[in-house]
Amino acid sequence: MPDHAATLQAWLEERDVRFMRVVWCDNGNMIRGKAMHIDALTRQLHQDFTCCGVGLSAAQQAISVVADVVAPGSGLGPVGEVWLVPVWETVQMLPYAPGQARVMGEMVKDGQPWPWCGRQFLRRMVQRAADRGLVIKAAFEPEFYLLRRDDDLIQPADTSPFAATLAMDIHQGVVMAIADALSAQGLAVEQYYPESGPGQQEISVRYTDALAAADQHIVYRETVKAVAYQHGLVASFVPKLFEAHAGSGCHLHLSVWQGDGPGQAPAGQRNLMPGENGGLSAIAQSFTAGLLHHLPGLMAITTPSPNSYRRLQPHCWSGAYRVWGMDNREAALRVPSNLNFPSPTHLELKTVDGAANPYLALGGAIAAGLDGIALSTPLPDPVQQDPGSLSEAERRDRAIDLLPQSLDEAIAALENDAILLDALGKPLAQTHLAVRRAELAAMQGMTLEAESKLLLDRY
Fold first, then answer.
1. CATH number, domain at 239?
2. 446 Cβ partners below 8 Å, 6+ apart?
3. Which residues are CB-contacts of 109 (< 8 A; sequence separation ≥ 6)?
4. Which secondary-structure segment (H or E) carries 102?
5. Phi, psi dihedrals of residue 441, rounded to the nearest 5°
6. Distance between CA 117 and CA 82 in Å, rounded?
7. Cα(11)–Cα(376) distance, rounded to whole angstroms?
């Protein structure tokens, strides 16, 4: 990747770039960007490569997805400007937008990292793990619907059931185009199948280091929506679009690795998740226990929309109870087993969806897991059945909790979680909570149909 002005200029000229999008993801999980024309970018490169960027109103981090207005109580307002600085190692051509490139941006003020920046929050949590000699690897596993817009009606693009090969044939063109565009941007596509809902899809990509995993998810969402649009379709990651059909999760897969020691190459990293006899190692148990302990508050970050809680219901494979289990798809934390590899290799956090800012969701999960490691938090026994099938007395005896059933419950839990609030930092925590409260207030009493129309093009 370009590392100074001359190589970047050559890279841009070779690819005939005319616009460079500098992209960020805000607290409402909208992917936003400002595009620099090549002439303006060239002038900046000649002046100072390290100070390239675009100006941005500080209040942009306090905007809700419901309306482009500043959320009350966010701590931000009309006064204040930050600088959105390109992270040049993330620059990529956009295969679906000829002549345009994208680069991830980080927010800076007075030459210093700005505490409201979500990407820098994740960077801090990655460093917190590194300070313990650990590397966190991750991948987001999004589900999305392909839809047709007929006047004011939104309909699934097909009516096929789970994994139907007919659905593969119906959507062969758009799915191939999405996969090719993802591959062209460096994402390793691993698996595709039609999901449970009509028109619902899942295309999984390979895990990578945490910061790159969140970047990958931004690339993924942008690419899926853009390519679908070019095929006359609407792609949506909204958690719950249709009452009678499956919701869309965005499960977060996590693993803890031993960091590189002095003089070690990345190949020296080792996955620390597997323990003896196909179980979790001691460090993986503590990491999992930390996630479970902080999960109610974490959900205000990972499932942060009122719409999220229409999906998070018992018997829906969405993780409505605060339990973990081996291969248990009703558990909030599933530990997948492997037949052909050391097992287990990672955790799957199911209480994540398409309303979540990936930098905040992953950073919050890391903070929770690291707290478990720091305290050697004991891991409860696994639950190897649907916890919703147990009686209330059985769940009480086994300390099985129903997770927050509404956004206001999750917000209250986060407000009382000192570890997560400290990790976010007061400015980011205050603004994130204000944005989500504004969304909660604006969507109060909405029908599912109204929510779907409102959120359809947001995420």
1. 3.30.590.10
2. 306, 454
3. 58, 81, 82, 83
4. strand 100-109
5. -65, -40
6. 10
7. 48
Q: Which helix (H) or strand (E) holds 141?
A: strand 134-150
Residues 269, 258 contacting (CB under 8 angstroms): yes
Domain that holds residue 25: 18-113
Asked whether residue 171 falls in the same domain as residue 23, the answer is: no
Q: What is the mean pLDDT of residues 98-107?
A: 96
Residue 98, helix vs strand vs coil? coil
Q: Domain boundary at 62, 88, 113, which?
A: 113
Count the alpha carbons within 13 Å of 157 in the hemisphere toward its beta carbon: 27
Helix/strand number for the chain, H first, E second: 14, 18
In a domain, 380, yes or no: yes
Rounded to 5 degrees, what angle do the CA atoms 254, 30, 239 make? 60
pLDDT at residue 263 greater than cutoff 50: no
Least confident of 57-71, 346-360, 410-424, 437-451: 57-71
Whether this model's pTM surpasses 0.90: yes
Q: What is the mean pLDDT of residues 317-327?
A: 90
Same structural domain, 224 and 280: yes
CB-based contacts of 358, cutoff 8 Å, min separation 6: 25, 140, 213, 214, 217, 218
Between the alpha carbon of residue 82 and those of residues 60, 91, 207, 430, the distances in Å are 10, 21, 32, 18
Region 317-328 average pLDDT: 90
Residue 130 has a pLDDT of 95
Give the integer Cα–Cα distance in Å for 235 and 148: 9
Place of tokens 């000192």: 418
Give residues with Cβ within 8 angstroms of 215, minimum separation 6.
90, 104
Tokens of 336: 């997948």
- Nearest alpha carbon to residue 455 among 323, 353, 329, 314: 353
Which two structure tokens, joined as six digits, stand for 280?
Answer: 């979790």
For residue 280, which phi and psi values (nearest 5 degrees)? -85, 145
Task: Give the C-alpha distances (Å, rounded to integers) separating 185 from 96, 201, 256, 279, 450.
Answer: 11, 20, 26, 36, 35
CB-based contacts of 91: which residues, under 8 Å, 6+ apart? 1, 2, 8, 11, 20, 101, 102, 103
**Number of CB atoms found within 10 A of residue 55's CB:** 9
Q: Are strands 81-86 and 92-93 parallel, antiparallel or unpaired?
A: unpaired
**Can you read off the two tokens belonging to residue 427?**
């400015």
